Amino acid sequence: MNEFGDVLQVRGLSREHGQGQSLVRAVGGVDLDVRAGQMLAVMGPSGCGKSTLLHLLGGLERPTDGQVWLGGQRIDTVSERGLARLRRRSVGFVFQAFHLVEELSAAENVELPVLLAGRSARSARRRAAVLLERFGLADRARHLPWQLSGGQRQRVAIARALANEPLVLLADEPTGNLDTAATLDVLRIFADLRAAGQTLVVVTHDERVAATADRLVTMRDGVLVDDTWLAGNARRLDGLFGLEG
Ligand SMILES: Nc1ncnc2c1ncn2[C@@H]1O[C@H](COP(=O)(O)OP(=O)(O)OP(=O)(O)O)[C@@H](O)[C@H]1O
């Protein structure tokens, strides 16, 4: 974190694919600071570079140009080994399609990143139990992913992403495959996480999801075209979804 409380800092960030005539500038010069404990939503038309931006923030892709600091550490120039370590320990990813390991139980899916980070089986089990309980899944711990609903699977995926207490949770369309009730479950979790100081960046096509964020940035053709603070909206969750009387 820097002196202003920013977990992520991005300067002049660009990512190009291909060459010559087939060159695509997925992200074209983005400056962005993400404050600790806040939820930043990213919206924009399909193909505008949202997923690429998220990948660059979490070290899944390297930029063609520009700088990224995560927790005060420059990550765009870090070695492959350093980047792998960073992805394991400092970043949590949540995807639209869950990407759970189908052969492992809900608990084992959450334990896996803890074990991969070099911690003991005992602390992995304890961490998984705490997170699954927190997300209302204690009685589903031994279930395999196919035995769970989409909403339950996404909650397991969020638990997995949080297993190593990442500096930032990066979510790419986390509610894209979920119905309204399951979407609301995920948004309640996000609200609780922020209350506990977790920083989140959420790419979404759902305006209701974006409206619950602290801040909304809009992308177009690889650049940020709007940046709006939405302070206090997390408290309006039920109202946004028409569940309030
Ligand atoms: N590996 C790649 N090789 C070539 N082009 C790519 C690659 N990855 C992304 N692109 C291109 O970069 C641009 C941005 O893609 P990206 O997936 O980041 O957009 P997006 O806003 O997340 O889209 P969506 O909302 O449809 O998921 C698109 O034109 C895409 O085709």
In words, what does this structure look like?
There is one protein chain. By secondary structure, the protein is α/β, with parallel strands linked by helices. The chain is 33% helix and 27% strand. The chain has a 6-stranded mixed β-sheet, with helices on both faces. The chain has a 4-stranded antiparallel β-sheet with strand order 2-1-4-5, covered by helices on one side. Helix 3 (106-116) packs across helix 4 and helix 5 (150-162) runs parallel beside helix 6 (180-195). The longest helix has 16 residues, at 180-195. The chain is globular. The N and C termini lie far apart (41 Å). The mean pLDDT is 93. The structure holds adenosine-5'-triphosphate. Adenosine-5'-triphosphate (ATP) binds at residues 17-18, 24, 26, 44, 46-52.
Structural class: alpha/beta
E-strand count = 10
| Rg calculated over all Cα atoms | 18 Å
- Which hetero compounds are present in the coordinates? adenosine-5'-triphosphate
Strand line-up across the major sheet: 6-7-8-3-9-10
Note the run of SSEs as H and E: EEEHEEHEHHHEHEHEEH
Q: What proportion of the residues is helical, as a percent range?
A: 25-40%
Q: How confident overall, as mean pLDDT? A: 93
Query: Hey, roughly how much beta strand do the residues contain?
Result: 25-35%
Gross morphology? globular
First and last CA, distance: 41 Å
Contiguous helical run count? 8
Low-pLDDT runs of 5+ residues are none
What characterizes the major β-sheet? 6 strands, mixed
